[in-house]
Design goal:
Distance between the termini: 26 Å
Shape: globular
Helix content: 25-40%
Structural class: alpha/beta
Strand content: 25-35%
Radius of gyration: 20 Å
Largest sheet: 8 strands, mixed
């Protein structure tokens, strides 16, 4: 295999922790050819880029990206829209993502499925598939979603919204709103099912897990809370050792103490970072339109006209920094929450989410202030 470049003199996060002074040999197939420890000879391996002791980390994986770069996926369900969102988030270290469609009519859902297929077929950097957040949700926990579109899908609709081939389809639903057979049918069609925007009781949440729900979308937000006599969906999520929980660590959506409790309750590796990002990430415009309503970020907090939180202005690099600063986790664990753990949720951990020979060269360089300096997707520099 011919090497195209060598990234040298970096503090590299490998499976067993940080290694100082490492070098990565990137092959021309978009994968990592070799991982060389400090002091290894680099002669003849290709052009060498000195990373000056910066961190070289596995690229971040975001399973919930509503928008970025001024684009909302609902408003631009096209391969071009997905590409624009991906470019915006690559600036912040995201190398793999699921463009996320907020509850909408079936026609728009089908456009989103087709757009994800075109994006995959044409090699849009970073796209893994798509996330359909609704419309199989609970009106009582709708958040910024329009309950007018909420429904129970029939067999025909299930087939149409899971028509993507060659990529990942993730569906968020409220388990109390749909029969267990819907969850089973989505799973049979290859979809990953998460629970969210739900008023489910503890018992209903447990039944959803038994039916095949793999985890929980933005834990604590838009779901029945944990109370002494009513554990709710949050209680079911924290008790279950096998499910995954996405968390929005922006200091607004969830109190840091609640997130620290979640980390203490769940087995290590089952809590991962998401952004729930809206179009203002990577854009100068603080506003966008959803369902004909203007939504604006004020001091970094995104709300609709009724004052409800409407996604976030968070990027993954900031989420990693916040996990260190607000949750008290070490940098190694914060990075794994943004890379290895979402890769396991999605079943792509053998290629994504970690650094090693043979794995995808999806990489992010951060300086010691944890600011992103460069991003590579499939060995190609897309930022920096």
């Amino acid at each position: 295999m011919m090497a195209t470049r060598v990234l040298a003199n970096a503090r590299v996060l490998l499976d067993d922790g940080f290694h100082e002074g490492c070098a990565l040999v990137l092959g021309d197939d978009g994968r990592i050819g070799q991982v060389l420890e400090a002091g290894a000879a680099l002669d003849g391996l290709g052009p060498v880029e000195d990373l000056q002791g910066d961190y070289l980390l596995p690229g971040f994986i975001d399973v919930q990206v509503n928008g970025g770069g001024g684009v909302l996926f609902n408003n631009q369900p096209s391969a071009e829209g997905i590409a624009a969102i991906g470019r915006a988030h690559a600036r912040f270290g995201t190398t793999a993502f699921l463009p996320t469609l907020i509850s909408d009519r079936l026609e728009v859902m089908e456009q989103a499925v087709a757009a994800a297929g075109r994006a995959l077929a044409t090699g849009v950097p970073g796209v893994l598939g798509l996330h359909l957040e609704g419309p199989y949700l609970a009106p009582a926990r709708k958040g910024t979603h329009d309950a007018h579109w909420f429904r129970v899908p029939d067999a025909d609709e299930i087939e149409r919204v899971t028509a993507l081939r060659g990529g990942i389809t993730l569906v968020t639903l409220a388990p109390e709103q749909v029969p267990a057979g819907v969850i089973a049918a989505l799973r049979a069609r290859g979809a990953i099912v998460l629970a969210g925007h739900s008023a489910a009781s503890y018992e209903q949440a447990r039944a959803g897990l038994a039916a095949g729900i793999r985890g929980f979308t933005h834990l604590f937000n838009a779901m029945s809370p944990l109370q002494g006599r009513e554990p709710g969906m949050v209680g079911a999520a924290l008790e279950d050792a096998h499910s995954w929980c996405g968390v929005i660590v922006d200091g607004v959506h969830v109190h840091p103490a609640s997130l620290r409790l979640a980390l203490a309750a769940k087995p290590r590796g089952k809590v991962f970072l998401v952004t729930d990002a809206m179009p203002m990430v990577g854009s100068e415009d603080p506003s966008f339109s959803l369902y004909g309503q203007t939504i604006t970020a004020v001091d970094g907090v995104v709300r609709n006209a009724e004052g409800a939180l409407a996604g976030s202005a968070l990027d993954m690099a900031t989420a990693v920094r916040n996990a260190v600063r607000l949750l008290g986790v070490g940098l190694e664990e914060a990075v794994r929450m943004a890379s290895a753990y979402p890769a396991r949720l999605l079943g792509i951990e053998h290629s994504h989410g970690s650094i090693g020979a043979g794995r995808r060269a999806d990489l992010v360089r951060m300086d010691h202030a944890l600011q992103v300096r460069s991003t590579w997707i499939g060995g190609q520099r897309v930022h920096g």
